[in-house]
Description:
- This protein is mainly α.
- It has 17 helices and seven strands.
- A three-stranded antiparallel β-sheet has the order 1-2-3.
Amino acid sequence: MVRLKIIIRSGALVLRISENKDRFYKSVEYLLKGAPDLKHWKADKEQFSGYAPFHEENNKALADFKQIYWKLVKEHPELTARQISDYYKNERRHTGTDPVELSDWTVEDYKNSVAKYLEVVTLREKAKAGCNFEGYYKLLQKCRKEVPGFEVMPFSTLDYNKMVQIANIFAKGKAYLHHSKKFRALLGKASKDKDVLFSLSQIGEFKFVDYNPDRYAIEGRTPDVLSAEELKAFLNLSVEDITPKYKDRRMVEIYYDFCVFMFHSFFAPCDVIKAKWRDITRKGTIAVRRKKTHRPVEVPVTPVMRHIIDKYKGQSKDGYIFPIMDDEKEKKYTTKDYTFKKFREFLNKWLKAVGKELNLCFDLYAYVFRHTAITVAIDHGLSVSYIANAAGTSVEMIQQHYYNGESQQNRDKLTEAFMNAGG
């Protein structure tokens, strides 16, 4: 009988496919996020311990990968270990020497195969410096698991009706927006690839947005913001006393200052963590380019911001305002923006605990401070155009999500205006 086991071989994780004395190996390194240390690998459980970075995501990815072959073993008991190993043409193949490189793929392998072209795109994205390939990999896993006949689906069968079927499958699960965007991006790449037998004209006027289960639910939803009382309570917290279960008090102080800095700057978390001393101008402002919109923004450095900047001065060897980023370490990670993503994860966990201490009606998270800053600016009469420029967003976005009747202050003013209308 064919047996499967994820093991360490030659210093790397592989899926071993064995039968009697025959051994075949499939590399699984490309599935892993954060370059986890193999010292955290638990051979008996075939998973990483809780000390490894991204252990939950990596353990799930490995289990899903193994399940693909285990399902094949159960459904086709007549296949040998070699046949099981060769059944799928994965992004990497292990033949006992080196993994297959991108150049070893031939056009015939993927020119009319949606699944194999998705594998190729995943590998191409992984090869690009700084690119995040996980989205395509997750799409590949989902399609293999949920889309009937995906493994043998030719591009020539993709038409309007087929796309509707795929959209309905995505709509039944989670992360519809994520998977639909990646699938549409895949089709865009295929249409531009002269070697692939696909044209966007095949799907006609099909749009994934028409089948989004949350299409209408999203409308009218407003960002989570702190009320004036809640904001005051947060800004007056005693850093020494909050979240007493957290033993690393230095990180608690960094978390707190990070959030205060966000509020005073309109910056998103990804913009604060990358802000450097060199971004501070002689005019007493801080000027950066927003990561999300790539728009240049410039806001005044408030006294509170200046205090935070001076507090951490010289603690980052790379010139960052907060001592979080390390450029040399960042180069070693395979996941794009690994340090930021890990910091954000821990920050949001801490904020959730803070939110409970403040008795908030929602789970507190980092982006709330940007939302709150924009709301406070609107409530204090600043022009929407100025706020949009300072926050690096559009007037339309401000009007749609923030400039509304959610503010108690605005509702009180409106009520007063109506009551005074009669003289």
